[in-house]
């Protein structure tokens, strides 16, 4: 299974044209991915055959949320499920870098009440004890975990990814993400035993109105100061072909 990280309806269209079967749908990928709109989910489900896992994340930075943020996340989760999401990606941690059992359990219960998939995202890569965290997620009924093996890139975390797959793969799906592309996906899957990878397949597109004479709305590093990130249909196609 190749999952493409998308930041828009247009990204989703490119992912499908490239041959992807499942996407993680976000907004604000420059912040690591935030909650998409229900309208975006509806468009993707109406006009593609993609399986859509929608992100539930109200802000950037970490995953220890206030009560108000948590309330918003559950409201967003219900709206995204009603809009047709096939699953939700989320993550709740405590200040001591453990899985927040109460909030995670409630989110899993909500998602499963719609008979959809509960996916714990890369908040997992910020826990202090990955094995205890995985046991907790399994006990709570989480269906899948997206992880880079607690390293910046999945290639660097391949050792832990292999251990997680061998130890827990019969009880929970392990999805490798971060730095995965057509050039390394097949080798990573063979090395770890994983059968699922997550990739952004990112390219850049120019918007000349990003900068005015005295102001700018830039967020990307040089040489992409006036660009925004998009999913490349070509890169998706290459990734799908390389992992067959």
TrEMBL record:
For this record, the Gene Ontology CC terms, alphabetical, are:
cytoplasm
Query: Which top-level group of life is the source organism from?
Result: Bacteria
Q: Which SUPFAM superfamilies match?
A: CutC-like
Keyword line? Cytoplasm
InterPro entries in the record:
CutC-like, CutC-like_dom_sf
Q: Which Pfam families match?
A: CutC
Intracellular or extracellular location(s): Cytoplasm
What GO MF terms are annotated? copper ion binding
Q: Provide the family line.
A: Belongs to the CutC family.
Return the PANTHER family for the record: COPPER HOMEOSTASIS PROTEIN CUTC (PTHR12598), COPPER HOMEOSTASIS PROTEIN CUTC HOMOLOG (PTHR12598:SF0)
Q: Mind telling me what this protein is named?
A: PF03932 family protein CutC
What organism is listed for this UniProt entry?
Candidatus Lachnoclostridium stercorigallinarum
Organism ancestry: Bacteria, Bacillati, Bacillota, Clostridia, Lachnospirales
């Amino acid at each position: 299974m190749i999952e493409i990280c998308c930041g828009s309806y247009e990204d989703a269209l490119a992912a499908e044209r490239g041959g992807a079967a499942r996407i993680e749908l976000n907004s604000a990928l420059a912040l690591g991915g935030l909650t998409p709109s229900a309208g975006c989910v509806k468009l993707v489900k109406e006009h593609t055959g993609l399986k859509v896992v929608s992100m539930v994340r109200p802000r950037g930075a970490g995953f220890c949320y206030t009560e108000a943020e948590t309330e918003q996340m559950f409201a967003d989760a219900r709206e995204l499920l009603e809009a047709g999401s096939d699953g939700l990606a989320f993550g709740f941690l405590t200040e001591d870098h453990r899985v927040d059992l109460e909030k995670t359990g409630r989110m899993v219960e909500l998602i499963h009440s719609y008979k959809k998939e509960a996916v714990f995202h890369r908040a997992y890569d910020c826990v202090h004890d990955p094995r205890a965290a995985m046991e907790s997620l399994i006990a709570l009924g989480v269906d899948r975990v997206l992880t880079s093996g607690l390293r910046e890139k999945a290639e660097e975390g391949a050792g832990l990814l292999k251990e997680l797959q061998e130890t827990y793969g019969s009880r929970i799906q392990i999805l490798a993400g971060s730095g995965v592309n057509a050039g390394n996906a097949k080798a990573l899957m063979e090395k770890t035993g994983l059968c699922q990878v997550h990739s952004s397949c990112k390219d850049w597109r120019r918007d000349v109105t990003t900068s005015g004479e005295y102001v700018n709305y830039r967020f990307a590093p040089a040489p992409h100061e006036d660009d925004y990130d998009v999913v490349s249909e070509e890169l998706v196609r290459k990734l799908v072909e390389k992992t067959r």
